[in-house]
Write a structure and sequence with these properties.
The complex is a heterodimer of chains A (about 55) and B (about 160). In chain A, about 75% of the residues lie in helices and about 0% in strands. Chain A has helices at about 10-15, 20-25, 30-55. The model of chain B has no long low-confidence stretch (mean pLDDT about 95). The chains are: A mainly alpha (about 55), B alpha/beta (about 160).
Chain lengths: ~55, ~160
């Protein structure tokens, strides 16, 4: 498979990528980017806990 | 869950030879997708295995998702006999990979890394193009969205 081969499946997924989020991320330093992902982890955990409490 | 600052400081401070791959490497390159663990490829050199086992021991490493009470020890012998370990520790979740599909060993990946300063430590992260190669080689449908995002990031960073 050559390096310039284009996977039509991946191309289809690209239509749904939120590029504005990527542009925002690229404005940050690598550490700031990773910290945001950790913040997201904590938010997901809190939501999961809240979901379990309401069941 | 991760606590990247502490996890990276532990490995770097203890002199472990490793490369960050996976979702956190993707985040360092600009991905906006969530990940829950720290994936690293570690050197299988005997001295590195010793360092890794010694450093992790106080942090209660245990097989993630395994039932409690198994006689698991993350010691040099276990590491030598195994290859890839998905662990939970009191610092956060780690995936320690001796080899990765599409990228090979630590030594083979080394030339496809960049050094990044973050959380007060400088360590090696797989470069964006190689990260895409690894995700493609893994061939997992769950990675399709991630590959699409990484390819867009690559095109944007190449334009800079």
């Amino acid at each position: 498979m050559s390096d310039d081969w284009v996977d039509p499946v991946i191309e289809a997924y690209k239509k749904d990528v939120d590029v504005t989020l990527l542009i925002e991320q690229l404005r940050r330093t690598p550490e700031e980017r990773m910290r945001r992902i950790e913040d997201l982890q904590h938010a997901m955990l809190e939501l999961a806990k809240a979901g379990r409490r309401t069941k | 869950m991760t606590n990247l600052g502490k996890q990276l400081a532990l490995l770097v401070g203890g002199g472990v030879d490793f490369i960050v791959i996976g979702g956190m490497a993707a985040a360092a390159h600009g991905s906006a997708r969530a990940t829950l663990d720290l994936d690293v490829v570690y050197s299988r050199a005997p001295s590195n295995i010793e360092r890794l086992a010694t450093l992790l021991a106080p942090h209660k490493p245990y097989l993630r998702g395994a039932p409690p009470g198994l006689p698991f020890k993350f010691d040099p012998e276990t590491i030598r006999h195994g290859l890839n370990f998905t662990l939970v520790t009191d610092l956060g979740d780690f995936d320690f990979l001796g080899e990765v599909v599409g990228g090979g060993t630590y030594a083979e990946l080394l030339t496809h890394t960049i050094e990044i300063d973050a959380f007060g430590v400088r360590c090696r992260y797989v470069d964006l193009a190689t990260l895409i190669t690894l995700k493609r080689a893994a061939g997992r449908p769950k990675d399709f969205e991630a590959i699409a995002e990484l390819e867009i990031l690559l095109s944007k960073t190449e334009k800079r």
